[in-house]
Every structure is written in structure tokens, then in C-alpha cells.
Write a structure and sequence with these properties.
The protein has about 120 residues and is mainly alpha-helical. It has six helices and two strands; from the N terminus they run αααααββα. A hairpin with a 2-residue loop joins β1 and β2. The protein is elongated, with a radius of gyration of 26 Å. It starts with 6 loop residues before the first helix and ends with a helix.
């Protein structure tokens, strides 16, 4: 007896196998729906961008949701690859919103960050 299957039977089994794998992968894709907000936050490159987005979310929650949706579309289309603080600030200013980043002045003395009093000594 031969362990070989006829070509027609082997082809049917192969098609069934491929359709089962395709069906299984489509079910996995349906359960793994990415949230636009998570995608946008993962593309924020620096702390200033996160700070500005947090302030925008707190002060203008309705505009925040619309902006996240639009940024998500731009990221998915490949127009944007990442978002830094300056880009986020420029977008907020272009929308006419008055959100200012916190100003931090850092003094470095002997390779360490120090406050103003210690820096002046």
C-alpha cells in the first residue's frame, strides 16, 4: 500500500487547511481591534507631547476626541510617523486653543541639575 494520496484528494485537503487558517486569522483580527487613542499615544515621542495631550484632554475633551481620530487617520495613512511636542503644540495653536506647556528651567552645575539658589553659590 502506498502512503501517497491522490493529487485531487491532496488538493482538497490543502484547500480546506488554508480556509481554516484564514478563518482563524480573521477571527483573531476581529478580537484585536486597536483603539485610536492608544495608537496616537504610542506615537508621542517626548514628554512635552504627552503633557500637552493630557492638558488638551482635561480642558477640551470633545476637541481631544476629534483630534485623536484625525491623528489616528494620518498615522494609519502614513502621513505622520511620530508626534513630538512641537508638532502637537503647533496643531493646538492652529486650532486656536490656548494651552501652554509648563515651563521648566534647568540649571546644570558640575553635571547635575540644581535649583537656582544652589546654582548661584
Amino acid at each position: 500500500m502506498s502512503d501517497e494520496l491522490p493529487d485531487s484528494l491532496r488538493l482538497k485537503l490543502y484547500k480546506k487547511y488554508v480556509s481554516a487558517i484564514t478563518r482563524k486569522s480573521s477571527e483573531v483580527d476581529k478580537t484585536r481591534v486597536e483603539k485610536p487613542e492608544d495608537v496616537v499615544w504610542s506615537k508621542l515621542t517626548d514628554e512635552k507631547a504627552r503633557e500637552l495631550m493630557n492638558k488638551l484632554k482635561a480642558l477640551y475633551p470633545d476637541i481631544y476626541q476629534v483630534l485623536v481620530g484625525e491623528l489616528y487617520k494620518l498615522l494609519k495613512d502614513g502621513v505622520l510617523k511620530e508626534l513630538d511636542g512641537l508638532t502637537v503644540y503647533s496643531i493646538i495653536k492652529a486650532l486656536g486653543l490656548n494651552i501652554r506647556p509648563d515651563i521648566r528651567i534647568k540649571f546644570v552645575k558640575d553635571g547635575k541639575e540644581v535649583d537656582l539658589d544652589e546654582y548661584m553659590k
